[in-house]
Design goal:
Length: about 270
Amino acid sequence: MLQPINHGGSLLAEIDQAEAIHPRLWWLGHCGFVVKYFDIIFYLDPLLSDSPARRVASPLRPEEVRHADMVLCSHAHGGHMDPATLPGLLAASTRAKVVLPKSAAEHARSIGIGYQRMTTTDSGLRVEYFKQGTYARVYAVPSAHPELDHTPLGGYPYLGYLVRCGECTFYHAGDSVPYEGLADRLRPYNVTVAMLPIGGPSEANFTIEEASALAADIGARWLVPMHYGTLGEDNGSIERFVEHMLFHRPEQRFKVFACGEGWQVPPLDTE
């Protein structure tokens, strides 16, 4: 099993000590990310349990994570709402709440998450978070996996999240394929960094061409691929992604992470 470039106490110390006047991002493998803005720390789709299927070891253990403010889960599938990650993480991060689709609340309870630790949401709704004078917002848009599967009572079971930190907006698609109207939903948010899945099964990810086209269509300043190389996904997809971007989308900025790597989103005035 490959090892992340940073992990454990070293990675946690880096996150805790990083200055984040301009937001920072760390990749945890699969679809998992950490977003830090000033002192606010969000975990997005964390998958921190080890299993024989992993090609890259988890950079953190759930019980090590004591600083999470909010944990965003895009849908109820195990790689995104991991029963071996969330209870331990929430036990360690005692003030954190899980943001999740409202239709996933019963599933979350069944894996050990109390209702008092949940904040349910749906497309078009906004979750706000304040900490020490800093303000961040989380918006939700539907994801298709491979269909939208909307119901009047349950809403959309698969969500993408738009995390607004100052002038920077992260779009995390979760598991999704393109669908008609997605770009129209995203354009008003002026996406800075689009995190799109490229390496999973066809019903759960974009093709490389579709991911680059969506980033261009919504005017995303940066494209970040995810959902490759950590579990059983196509490990060669990242090489094809880089080749495609360099030869077919040279105007589009992109960032490819190593597991455990951090990155500060460049401010507009430095690009």
